[in-house]
Amino acid sequence: MSAVCVLRTRRVLRQVFPGLPAAMQRHYSLDVTAPLLRTQGYVDGRWVSAASVFPVLDPATGQEIVRVTDCGPAEAKQAVDAAYKAFHSWKQYTAKERSVLLRKWFDLLTLHKEDLAKLITFECGKPMRESLGEIAYSASFLEWFSEEARRVYGDVVPSPAKDRKILLLKQPVGVASIITPWNFPSAMITRKVGAALAAGCTVVVKPAEDTPLSALALAELAEQAGIPAGVFNVVPCSREKTPSVGEVLCTDPLVAKISFTGSTATGKVLLKLAADTVKKASMELGGHAPFIVFDSADVDKAVGGAMASKFRNSGQTCVCSNRFLVQSGIYDRFVEKLGRAMDAELRLGHGSEPDTTQGPLINTRAAEKVVHQISDAVSQGAKVLKGGKRLDGSFMQPTLLADVTTDMLCTKEETFGPLLPIIRYQLFTLSDVITSGFDAFLYSIIHEAR
Predict the structure, then answer these.
(1) Closest CA relative to residue 106, chosen from 198, 13, 203
(2) Rounded to an integer, what distance in angstroms lies between the CA atom of residue 149 and that of residue 136?
(3) Rounded to the nearest 5°, which phi and psi values hold at 168?
């Protein structure tokens, strides 16, 4: 099997990334087996081109990896039609037949895990260790649903009438539009598509514009596994064409279901588009998770949990903690040990370097958002204890903020970056209220919150 080597010229990074490892001064290349580096859309079992292409960039370097077919509404409609046509035959496959094909797809993901992980690292920026973990995670969905495909059981329900029986049958709904984010460019597809195909549905996938290569590699492996033409379709597109492609996938009457993971704002738009045809919809939208530490906590374990929760994929997951609330009695020790852990454990660099733990953010817009939140917090009295600076491109220093209040943007909106803001809080008892008086008690709560 031949290999594709995509080379990029790099600048010397020590001059623009102070503190990054010296290894970042070398050239980086994406070396994957040729069939897995696909640049065209995948519709009805064929690789298709459109009138234009768009670049896919390595977020660590800002350099172009490849150019990918920029599908528009016409290609999206072709994909929906192909999926609808294939649905009528795919739903007739037995549970065992669908199970066997999904299992073959799983086996191929496992076989090519190294190359698939490289694609994630170069288009998404994740350290290779995390990318390999995502591929294992991605494959696990196909393995799970290959088994669940055999268990699409119905039921017999007691009837109120003596001469009747009520039988419940589970049937596929039809074509599903799958719209996925960039932060898990492989796993968010297999999690949705594995379930849909196991149930007998067909799909049209629109991957994020930043990370289409993982989706197209999955299409290549689906074809190798024997998934029939039209059952799995992928329509990559640029940021500019995303609204028009999304409109087709959410309004076409042949689409029965939409599944979306992404921002709350985009989810609202898609739900409105789907409303006219009353489509079934599954939405996994933005998060704003708190991380709460009480005085009774084991500080070392709390710090370990905070590090794992905040800095995975440089803070770019929807389950990363966003607000850290630490009780007054343990606050100073927690902040001190957390700062030491950040110094000891976090290493900025290109994801292909073995010691890298923190890659770049997905693009410059993401870095600008983190900078804006830091500036807002500092202007209102927060202190930067670690980091706080944007480096060249979309690299962002892991940042620790103290003296944070609930008035600051970083406690009101999701960050999606390596920013860890800590709020000091105090618990009050009934005796505190009785001793100080209710008015003083309310004042103290407000004062602590601020």
Answers:
(1) 198
(2) 20
(3) -105, 125
Q: Which long-range contacts (CB under 8 A, 24 or more apart) does 295-300 make?
A: 295/327, 295/328, 295/329, 295/330, 297/330, 299/330, 299/333, 299/334, 299/337, 300/337
Q: How many CB atoms lie within 10 A of CB 263?
A: 15
Tokens of 312: 């995975």
pLDDT in tens, 144-191: 999 999 998 999 999 999 999 999 999 999 999 999 999 999 999 999
| Neighbour-count burial for 25-62, b at 16+ CB within 10 Å, e otherwise | eeebebebeebbbbbbbbbbbebbebeebbebbbbbbb
Residues lower than pLDDT 50 in the chain: 1-18, 21-23, 449-450
Going by C-alpha positions, the residue among 314, 291, 287 that lies closest to residue 390 is 314
Q: Of 152, 157, 117, 161, which is closest to residue 136 (Cα–Cα)?
A: 117
Closest residue by Cα to residue 241 from 68, 4, 21, 28: 68
Active centre residues (catalytic): 284, 318
Strands 64-69 and 53-57: antiparallel
Sign of CA dihedral 102, 103, 108, 114: positive
Write out the two tokens for 263: 């921002």
Which positions ≥6 away from 429 have C-beta within 8 Å?
none
Q: Tell me the pLDDT tens digit for each residue of 379-388.
A: 999 999 999 9
The SS3 of residue 240 is: coil
Altogether, the residues listed in the chain come to a count of 450
Q: What is the DSSP letter of 149?
A: G
